[in-house]
Amino acid sequence: PVARAILRRQDYAWNILVERIQAINEYLPLFRDAFADIKKATDISITHIANAIGAFVNSEWRADSSPFDAYLRGDEAAFGVIEKRGLELFYGKGGCAACHSGKFQTDHEFHAIAMPQFGPGRTRMFDPVVRDRGRINETDEREDSHKFRTPSLRNVAISAPYGHTGAYRTLEAVVRHHLNPVAAFRTYDPGQTILPPEARLAKVDFLVFENTVEQASIIAANELEPVDLTDREVTDLIAFLRTLTDGKGLKGRLGAPQNVPSGLPLDE
């Protein structure tokens, strides 16, 4: 029912979800504790539900207890010599912070960096070509072609594969792509992708590599200028990126509950 409702209009599904929550008596005292304006079950709205889920996500997997955070708070011992060199590169010569800025190393903007494209992605409606042109799908502005949102780099060392398509399986590979996106795009090896063995999808996964027009379009949209880093500097930069790993947020702070009010089964 929820899936069918979404096909008609997204908020139709919200009503179904709210009615389900309202009908489970065990939820009412929990929502009363969390929201002062809830007295009875029918007071629970989709806004309450969304805010509760948002608060949980923001707390459970918050990544702000990394060695990098400790270093910022004045703990010099949190960084070694290599990590400090990597930090200088990240915020200096490497130019990484131009896009990966702020507390969580993202400007939340959209950029085109010639990331290899494979699979159907989010193909636009009525588009006869298998491709995903990114932000333009939402804005219809030509300058947004092939732009994708800058990801946060928190826990990046354990977040492979990398790129909006998962084009790179190692942190070093995606770092080197950023050093010269056009050259990396032209020499990209599809063999490094991590894909499920699905014959039906395999037939179309790499069609975009046969489309010279689309390939040229991805290259033309690239915004990044080449950066010349030595192998040692790449190693230093990766060492810094590893300091963004927050062990506390990897598995969640509260952990999985033994049961939930709905009575639905939980995975171990």
Short structural summary:
By secondary structure, the chain is mainly α.
Task: Give an account of the 3D structure.
The protein is an all-alpha fold. The protein has a two-stranded antiparallel ribbon with strand order 1-2. Helix 1 packs antiparallel against helix 2 and helix 6 crosses helix 12.
The average pLDDT score comes to 92
The number of helical segments is: 12
Describe the largest sheet: 2 strands, antiparallel
Lateral arrangement of strands in the main beta sheet: 1-2
Feature tags:
268 residues; two-stranded antiparallel sheet; 40% helix; 1% strand
What is the secondary structure topology, with strand pairs?
Layout: H1 2-8, H2 10-22, H3 27-34, H4 46-60, H5 67-72, H6 81-91, E1 110-111, H7 136-139, E2 148-149, H8 171-179, H9 181-186, H10 199-205, H11 212-221, H12 231-242
